Amino acid sequence: MSSAQLYDTIGATYIATRRTEPRIAAQVWAALGDARTVVNVGAGTGSYEPPDRDVAAVEPSALMRAQRPADAAPCVAAAAESLPFEDQSFDAAMAVATLHHWPDPVAGLREMRRVARRVVVLTHDRSDTGWLNRFWLTRDYLPEVADLVAGGPSLTDLAGAIGSRMEPVSIPWDCVDGFFEAFWRRPEAYLDEQVRRGMSVWARVGPGAEQRAVRSLGDDLASGRWAERNRDLLDLDAAELGLWLLIA
User: Fold this and answer.
1) Sign of CA dihedral 155, 156, 158, 164
2) What is the pLDDT of residue 30?
């Protein structure tokens, strides 16, 4: 299933839980440097688009485009692997939490490099299976995620495709953007179906795995088992769970 098809299926309530996390945004925007014109690739509903720059957006899903606020940047329907812009049209190209949905992420990155002088990408190191074990949700309740991330290009491969450096991104404990790992210190959030609908992982593992994981987590929260297993997290202000910036 393409990213457009996926989000046309699951994205109806996406804007309710997915929004700009200011501390992560600050890191992304700093990486853009002095870029004045920016294209946001896989832009979704417009989160993380810098308000003080001239932004154009690219999003293949009609449902996601329809949820963009009225004052959001103009958005065209296109895929990352075939951007409808001339060479070096922008000072910078950015992509946030979208690369893992692209059929050919290396081709998409090279397209970003073609149309912009600077590239900034927020993504996961899907080849680092260590984060699957560091994150209690995948380790203890949803091991199927390992199959979803298997076989894709490594972060090193992605960085090498555009000659980028890599910068780790911490996830604050009270992150306001409801992506998959955002609630690492607030486990009760994963029991909320609306919260889960803002995370593509649940649609990809299927309803059987989702229901099993939610039921097991609910039982462990009620019994105190989750707190006992994860007491070391409760005093942390931020966690590193495989989120990185690629900056070229």
Assistant:
1) positive
2) 98
**Taking the CA atoms of the chain, what radius of gyration do you get in angstroms?**
18
Q: How far apart are CA 212 and CA 137, in angstroms?
A: 12
Residues comprising the chain, all counted: 248
**What was the pLDDT predicted at 101?**
87
Dihedral of the alpha carbons of 15, 28, 180, 1, in degrees to the nearest 10 = 70
Strand partners, 90: 116
Evaluate whether 4 touches 61 at the Cβ level (below 8 Å): yes
What is the reported pTM?
Answer: 0.91
> 12 vs 3, 6, 199, 224, 240, CA distance in Å?
14, 11, 12, 34, 29
The bridge status of strand 37-41 relative to strand 90-96 is parallel
pLDDT score recorded for residue 147: 87
Distance CA 239, CA 70 (A): 34
Burial 203-229 (b: 16+ CB within 10 A, else e): bbbeeebbeebbeebeebeeeeebeee
Residues of the chain whose pLDDT is less than 70? 1-15, 126-129
Rounded to the nearest 5 percent, the helix, strand and coil shares of the chain are 45, 15, 40
**Could you tell me where the beta strands, DSSP code E, fall in the chain?**
37-41, 54-58, 75-76, 90-96, 116-124, 165-168, 171-172, 238-239, 243-247
CATH class of the region 3-247: alpha beta
User: What distance in Å separates the CA atoms of residue 155 and residue 197, rounded to the nearest whole number?
Assistant: 27
Q: Which residues pair with 41 in a beta bridge?
A: 58
Closest CA to 169 of 207, 228, 120, 109: 120
